[in-house]
Design a protein that fits this description.
By secondary structure, the chain is mainly alpha-helical. It contains 35 helices and 2 strands. It has helices at residues 9-22, 60-63, 67-78, 90-99, 104-113, 119-124, 129-132, 147-155, 160-168, 178-185, 194-203, 222-234, 238-255, 265-277, 279-291, 296-305, 307-313, 315-326, 333-350, 353-366, 373-389, 392-409, 412-428, 432-449, 452-468, 472-488, 492-508, 512-529, 538-552, 554-565, 569-577, 597-607, 612-619, 623-637, 642-649; strands spanning 208-210, 217-219. Strands 1-2 form a two-stranded antiparallel ribbon. The protein is globular and about 90 Å long. The two termini are 48 Å apart. 43% of the residues are buried.
Length: 653
């Protein structure tokens, strides 16, 4: 057995190779931060201790069995801290071991501090972990007496190029791609071979590789990142590296600011999903823009470029970032105008006419005299906000101006933007023929221009118009088309709205059971996502609920609605897409499912009798990752064996 081979890597490799040549039946167990690189070597990656998933409803007895938590409690009590897990402190204890990445030495050093600090107080001070986590056993080697000394001991073995790349990677708060690493780490004053250095850092366990489909992504443990960040500041490189990182992600966000022309649905969805994966890195870039007066312009461009992402993924967060950036001085007129437009559009989606009208008025002022699609969208959004505010006269004024400018531009996207306000005003006038026709014509323009975002809006207008005219078959056709467009870009608030519109159509068509279930499913997704009911659909939702309850009776209505509320997202979509006005089959009710999609996969494979190793192979993850999922499954379900998981899975299909 050879321990800590990385400090005598070449010598250990030569020794091992010689021994195996002379004694073929010999087995050598070597521990090292990197493989020895000799013939016959089988590398087994040792993950940190298992940590319960953050934010889960913790079961005390089961949480205490997690490896990292168990070590914390044991070492704290050995040190005289008398740590007892309770409902009050279990969340802090889990957060502590999570932020320490399940690293045993870090947890042991933290446990000593629990003699004088509570778990919550210790978590609050982890930003200074290298001064905090000291005082290991005096009998241990010096490198094991402080957290910093342990990492430094291995860091000092890196060559200068590897150290440069490691410290520059510290600006990534989350996982990152090879392309991002090459851009951020490859600049002056030293331009290292990033690919080679990154490979070496992976081999030496400083950087972790994540392979969850697609290209590999890389990540530093939080503790390693904090260590590297200190080295980055000591090298005087933090400012230039953060500016390079900002430049990289600013380009990504600006590239998302398009009106959808010539982008197919798969590309559009892929771009949104890429932004979602990079969300933490983008947030870090936006925070830098708020802190650096010279980067306000870039921040405004990023926040505006993310408009479609905010609309379909994170309404409230988008509002917060844009408002914070608009409060800063600086930024060219065009950047501020685009940001103000996005702010007004988000306000319309949230039903906040006060904030939206101010933003749209400012945007209109900044674009006065401009003849472009942006101004059409600003004017149309301003009209919609006036509708929400109850000022129909002003709504007509701005809608007419938007339509006039769209006619001058004679552009499909401009016409589609203006049509949003036009269809809305037609509905207020009770002119549902016009609402339907405007929606259908605008939808065709969207298809021609590959504008998937507005397509669902216009098909919804067409569907509601047909519904109010009593043509429920045509309404369903348009609304199902709107739902498909919504699903194509995974527009989450939009999905709720389409389900609600289909529920309204079902209620008016006297399919009360189906309506009640759709209302329940929509409300489940709305609550899960933290969305409010859109003010544009609220009257139809209220009418649908009243109609369905009147037809079914209150008790039966609540029962059917509860069936829908217990469907998961996929089942809710199947319910909506399976609507048949001639025959409304009874969908099987489903019970509450607290597991994530990946946890459900693991649970189903475990129920089928697969071992952790077999599950890991099937899902292309590590065996330790499966163990963590199994722990979380047992914790969430309150179970104590794999057999119980099978009992839970099988009755629910």
């Amino acid at each position: 057995m050879l321990d800590n081979c990385e400090h005598l890597q070449d010598a250990c490799a030569v020794l091992t190779d010689s021994l195996l040549r002379e004694a073929p039946e010999l087995r050598v167990l070597a521990t090292s931060r990197q493989p020895l690189g000799v013939t016959g070597e089988q590398v087994v990656h040792i993950d940190p201790l298992t940590v319960p998933a953050g934010g889960a409803p913790f079961v005390l007895a089961r949480t205490a069995q997690a490896e990292a938590v168990a070590l914390l409690v044991a070492r704290a009590n050995e040190a005289g801290a008398d740590l007892v897990l309770t409902d009050a402190n279990v969340g802090d204890a889990v957060e502590l071991v999570r932020r320490l990445d399940g690293i045993p030495l870090a947890i042991e050093l933290a446990a000593v501090r629990l003699r004088t600090l509570s778990p919550g107080q210790l978590v609050e001070r982890l930003n200074d972990r290298f001064h905090l986590l000291t005082g290991g056993s005096k009998a241990a080697p010096a490198r094991h007496q402080t957290l910093e000394a342990t990492i430094s001991w291995s860091h000092d073995l890196l060559d200068p190029e590897e150290r440069t790349v490691l410290r520059r990677l510290a600006v990534f708060p989350a996982s990152f791609t090879l392309g991002a690493a090459e851009r951020v780490c490859g600049g002056e004053p030293v331009a290292p071979d990033v690919l080679g250095a990154l490979g070496a850092l992976v081999d030496r366990s400083f950087v972790n590789v994540e392979r969850a489909g697609g290209d590999a992504r890389y990540r530093l443990h939080e503790t390693t990142r904090e260590f590297a960040l200190i080295r980055l500041r000591e090298a005087g490189e933090e400012a230039v590296v953060r500016r390079t990182q900002l430049s990289f992600f600013a380009e990504m966000c600006r590239g998302a600011d398009s009106d959808g022309r010539d982008a197919d649905d798969e590309t559009t969805l892929a771009n949104l999903e890429a932004l979602e994966v990079e969300a933490d890195n983008i947030r870090a870039a936006l925070r830098y823009c708020l802190a650096d007066p010279g980067s306000v312009q870039t921040g405004l461009e990023m926040a505006a470029g993310l408009g479609r992402f905010w609309t379909s993924r994170a309404l409230s967060e988008g509002v917060q970032w844009i408002e914070a950036l608009l409060e800063r001085d600086g930024g060219e007129t065009s950047a501020r105008a685009r940001a103000l437009f996005v702010r007004s559009y988000l306000a319309a989606a949230q039903g906040d006419p006060t904030a939206g009208l101010q933003a749209s008025a400012d945007a209109a002022q900044l674009t006065r005299g401009a003849d472009d699609v942006l101004r059409v969208r600003i004017l149309a959004t301003r009209a919609a906000l006036h509708v929400l505010d109850g000022d129909i006269s002003e709504a007509r004024r701005w809608s007419d101006e938007a339509s006039t400018l769209a006619n001058i531009l004679d552009d499909d996207i401009a016409h589609a933007a203006a049509a949003q306000a036009e269809a809305l005003i037609a509905s207020l006038d009770g002119d549902f023929v016009r609402m339907r026709d405007v929606g259908l014509a605008a939808a065709e323009r969207c298809r021609r221009a590959h504008e998937i975002y507005m397509l669902s809006t216009h098909l919804t207008s067409a569907g509601v118009g047909s519904m109010m005219l009593g043509d429920h078959s045509a309404a369903e056709s348009s609304l199902v088309g709107a739902l498909h467009a919504t699903l194509a870009i995974d527009d989450r608030p939009g999905l709720v709205m389409r389900l609600q519109a289909l529920a309204a159509n079902a209620a008016m068509a006297r399919h009360a059971e189906h309506s009640a279930r759709l209302l329940g499913a929509a409300d489940m997704l709305r609550t899960e996502g933290g969305y409010d009911v859109s003010p544009f659909i609220r009257p139809l939702v209220e009418q649908a609920a009243t109609r369905a309850a009147t037809r079914l009776g209150r008790e039966r209505y609540e029962r059917e609605r509860n069936v829908g509320a217990h469907l998961d997202r996929d089942a809710a979509i199947r319910l909506a897409l399976g609507t048949d006005l001639a025959h409304n089959p009874e969908p099987a009710p489903a019970g509450p499912n607290p597991l994530s999609k990946r946890e459900r996969q693991v649970a189903e494979l475990a129920a089928a009798g697969l071992s952790n190793k077999e599950i890991a192979t099937r899902l292309f993850v590590s065996e330790r990752t499966v163990e963590t999922h199994m722990y979380n499954i047992l914790n969430k379900l309150g179970l104590n064996s794999r057999t119980k998981i099978a009992d839970w899975v099988l009755p629910t299909g």
